[in-house]
Amino acid sequence: MKTFFMRLIVLVAVSFSSPVRGVSAEMKAAPAPLVDVIKVVPDMIVSMQYATADNFTGKALYGCNRCFLTESTARKLALAQIELKEQKLGLKVWDCYRPLSVQKIFWALVPDPRYVADPAKGSRHNRGTAVDVTLVDSRGNELPMPTRFDDFSTKAARDNMDLPVQILKNRDALENAMKKAGYIPLPTEWWHFDDSDWQSFELRDGDICRD
Ligand SMILES: [Zn+2]
């Protein structure tokens, strides 16, 4: 009798645990939620270039002027802002999380991996772990930089030293603050920085303008 009950218990346990195991094997862990960076860096200027038609595609591709990043990436941006404020400077952000569907539009227009990541591999922007930023003074005016945003030329490269001294100083001030905060500068674009921990986060798609 005791053996019968033991078998019954094992049978019941297996019949309950098997479907659960099956589901958990199929389910992927939900990606970490993105945060609206203005809640983490309230004094940063947000000017998302793809929320207006004033970008290389000529179209507004985002439905709102909000910057979303993973929470840890946003906290690093707060560190860079603190560092720059000590120099009476600040950050103005041009792009943050970018849905994979928008990456496909970019790639169709500029299939050059120096400037646009192939959507088959994805951009670090698609993970919410990259930012495009420039510097502003204490009044919020942009400082002179090597090129405009999304200048897909070698002028935008970090090894371009053929620039006025003040512009080199501005580029260095941005790069130094971002590196100190935990970002890695992209060699081909002075405005692009990747969170050094980007590999911990997955590629993602979907509306950036949700609450
Ligand atoms: Zn970028």
List the helices and strands and how they pair.
Elements: H1 2-26, E1 34-36, E2 45-46, E3 68-70, H2 71-85, E4 89-95, H3 100-109, E5 130-137, H4 165-181, E6 183-185, E7 192-195
Parallel strand pairs: 2-4
Antiparallel strand pairs: 1-3, 4-5, 5-7, 6-7
The structure holds zinc ion.
Model description:
With 211 residues, the chain is of the alpha+beta class. It has a single domain (33-200), classed as Muramoyl-pentapeptide Carboxypeptidase, domain 2 (2-Layer Sandwich). Helices cover 32% and strands 14% of the residues. The protein is built from 4 helices and 7 strands. A hairpin with a 6-residue loop joins β6 (183-185) and β7 (192-195). α2 (71-85) crosses α4 (165-181). Mean pLDDT is 88; it is low at 8-26. Bound molecules: zinc ion. Zinc ion binds at residues 95, 125, 130, 132, 192.
CATH architecture identity = 2-Layer Sandwich
Through-space gap between termini: 59 Å
The CATH class name reads Alpha Beta
Number of domains: 1
Summarize the structure.
It is built from 4 helices and 7 strands. The protein has helices at about 1-25, 70-85, 100-110, 165-180; strands at about 35, 45, 70, 90-95, 130-135, 185, 190-195.
